[in-house]
Write a structure and sequence with these properties.
The protein is an alpha/beta fold. It is 25% helix and 25% strand. The longest helix is centred in the middle third of the chain and has 25 residues. It starts with a strand and ends in a 14-residue tail after the last helix.
Length: 314
């Protein structure tokens, strides 16, 4: 079975690796064009491109997925199946070219959390379970018929980065199973239940601002849902502060404090009042500095009880 694999970030690598490990012929790998990165803004290859070059795989980097020339390249490969993992939205002129269809791996239990940031939103919303889904591509994003799903428990302090890595590995196994089902003609896709659909839109910088008027559980979920990227942020003494790891505490000893107020600070502890409860900051980063533990941060940046954090605009 001739497979064309499409993906760009690290999330796609376990799926590509598992297909190679199981000796599926990869006719081509399609990934995004190199993007400028770093201070010098030099074009840098995607993780999938680096992986593919190391293994001498046939590589395509189309700038325009709707260009007739790209469709012609895919058609010339005569693919049986397109496997899509963390890639851009494909036009029907491309995904319809594979004899056995095209499927996508999505990092949620569809129809929940359709969109660009399913891992982040599952954590922000305090979900205790998520998973991965493979589904056939269709005209509307993330709405195609479901092929397989796998459920994954979410730990109470698990971050988006940790969940990302877990789902990438679980997803690879589901991709392999899906390819086997489609290859054997045993796939039994089912329609998504639109009544349970929820959005997971792309997250921008201003969406990452911490609202200290929310409860400690909401802020804790918000921080871990954005950790390590794009990173939840607040301001302190006019500087942007990013939080990466927190814990919740009862606020009974801090009644009367305004949300955002530092209510306890010592050599290793930095606690901030929420509307209900208290947030203990575990990992923090001030703009222009590296990410560090609260204890490391406090050694170089003394903070006093009674000072306030605020999510002001920059």
């Amino acid at each position: 079975m001739r497979i064309v694999f499409m993906g760009t970030p690290e999330f796609a690598l376990p799926s590509l690796q598992i297909l190679l490990d199981n000796h599926y012929p990869i006719s081509a790998v399609v990934t995004a064009p190199d993007k400028p990165q770093g201070r010098g803004q030099k074009p840098a290859p995607s993780p999938v491109k680096r992986f593919s070059l190391d293994r001498s795989l046939n590589l395509l980097q189309p700038a325009d997925l709707k260009a007739p020339s790209f469709a012609a390249e895919i058609k010339a490969l005569n693919p049986d199946l397109l496997v899509v993992v963390a890639f851009r939205i494909l036009p029907s002129s491309v995904y319809s070219l594979a004899a056995k269809g095209a499927f996508n791996l999505h990092a949620s239990l569809l129809p929940k959390y359709r969109g660009a940031a399913p891992i982040n939103w599952a954590l922000i919303r305090g979900e205790q379970e998520t998973g991965v889904t493979t589904f056939f591509l269709g005209e509307t994003v993330d709405t195609g018929s479901i092929i397989l799903q796998a459920r994954v428990r979410i730990g109470p302090d698990e971050t988006a980065g940790e969940l990302h890595d877990k789902l990438a590995e679980v997803g690879a196994e589901i991709v392999l199973q899906t390819v086997r089902l489609i290859g054997s003609g045993k796939a039994q896709p089912r329609t998504q239940d639109e009544g349970h659909a929820t959005p997971a839109p792309k997250i921008f910088k201003n969406d990452c601002r911490i609202d200290w008027n929310k409860t400690s559980i909401d802020i804790h979920n918000f921080v871990r849902g954005l950790s390590p990227v794009p990173g939840a942020w607040t301001t302190f003494r006019g500087k942007i502060i990013r939080l990466y790891r927190t814990a919740q505490h009862d606020a009974s000893n801090h009644v009367g404090s305004e949300p955002g107020t530092v209510v306890k600070v010592d050599k290793e502890t930095l606690m901030v009042r929420a509307s209900e409860g208290v947030i203990s900051i575990k990992e923090i980063q001030m703009e222009g500095r590296k990410r560090m533990s609260a204890a490391e941060f406090l050694r170089g940046f003394p903070i006093q009880e009674g000072e306030r954090f605020a999510g002001g605009d920059r």
